[in-house]
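User: Second chain of the day. Same drill as before.
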Amino acid sequence: MVFRSPLMALVATTLALAGCSSSRTLAPSISGQLPAQVTLGGVAMSVTTSLNRDFMPIAPPDGSPLGVLVQVHSLTGAALPAGLSIVSVTVRYQGLEWTSTPNKIDLSDPTRLEAGSGGGPKWGPEVAVDVVAVLELAGHRESVDLTNQWIGRTD
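Assistant: Same format as last time:
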């Protein structure tokens, strides 16, 4: 399945993990929640995240585990380098951390890369966390720090 919108990919990932459907509560604006920027393979790119917990009626009473979507976008419109991957994502909250290997989401847009993980801890929702995404290209790994990332909720 191909998603043309990061939000739609997040919603689809959340719904696939939760097995149900509904609307998503959008996070409030947080001053520190800005995309990180990195250059790999000569291409400048931004890295963003979307984090979510599901509280729809089909979810457990205390909500579903955390899901995270990492999005990489070319800043210039150039195609991302072939072989670029998101190899891990770590979410940190109040001295605790959860690390996962996200699954790539197939996209038809060569200027974007997305990968997501589910089954995380039940932190939040509606709290800020720090995220470290690790990108890899041709054996070189680059850690990208994203602070004050908001864990949203789906009701």
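The radius of gyration is 15 Å.

User: Great, on to the next one.
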